[in-house]
Automatic annotation (TrEMBL):
Name by which UniProt lists this protein: NAD(P)H-dependent flavin oxidoreductase YrpB, nitropropane dioxygenase family
UniProtKB keywords: Dioxygenase, Flavoprotein, FMN, Oxidoreductase
Species whose genome carries this gene: Cryptosporangium aurantiacum
One function term, GO molecular function aspect: nitronate monooxygenase activity
Pfam families: NMO (PF03060)
Keyword Flavoprotein found: yes
Amino acid sequence: MRTDLCDRLGIEHPIVGFTPSEHVAAAISRAGGLGVLGAVRYNDPDELAAALDWLDKNTDGRPYGVDVVMPMKAPTEGSIGDLSKLVPPAHRDFVEKTLHELGVPPLPASDNPDGDGVLGWLHSVARAHVEIALEHRPALIANALGSPPADVIAQAHDRGILVAALAGRVDHALRQVADGVDIVVAQGSEAGGHTGEIGSMVLLPEIVDAVGGSVPVLGAGGIGSGRQLVAALALGASGVWMGSTWLLTEEYANGLGQTAVSQALLKASSADTVRARIYSGKMARLVKSRWTEAWAAPDAPDPLPMPLQNLLVGEAHRRIAAADDPDVVAMPAGQIIGRFDHLQPVATIIEDIVREAEATRARLAP
């Protein structure tokens, strides 16, 4: 199952896996894919440095990547105090009332650092994440919000690091290639997290036709099996970008202690997700829960723009995680979660995907 992407990234299988867990990222890389660690959860850049140090030591010398959340143009910035003044009191009241109704207790004062939940979404902190990544040995730096700033792309290229960007429309992909991005990730609306409105079956060949002759394109959104990998390759992709699948792994559940999240995802069907701006201020797909239902109620306020929405709900997300209630989770997840009903090791999932992909190709072209 080799494609040109494998040669570009130095991997065995055309599988790129995004994850917030360094344990999952390392397991993906060791299994022959490219594990990409999401940096946004690291409010303290030193914590990201420690995670990348760990990856350097636990990937058996194999490549990995780092994903940042960095708009090309800096959004509203300022101190946490300045930003807090922009959050309407009515929004804060709604969040506190909702948490009380859902039975989510407050955090201990010692576990609630000032500004938690927003720092990782600020442009300045994203730049610090990039600087730390460049001090390590990633094969790829990806940006969830399109093209990184030109100087970031140049710095990565100077160090021989490829740059990827996620695109939800053809015009996004064309702009990214013009900006100097090396790999375009065509992410359909089925995907978890920040995602657009066009489904993968339509979006992927559109983007391949537009830019596939100049850069490789990865298919993303609704991919979790060998048949879906082959389908993406048939549509012109050089490989796949997978995220939600890794949330249903033993390494994720054990590494981050996400017991409630695992339970919520395992019992969810492909119909149990929702697209909304409640997570960060930008449209994202989340698993349905009592938390998402509260934001869909008639009396709920409109979500705020990024990064104010994340500042509003950052502590709430931490409280929800600490409450460990599978009915009250705030977790980005794609429709592919309906495929899984038990946790598996990362290596087993990749092995199954590759085996099924090879069998599918043999069936189609005996």
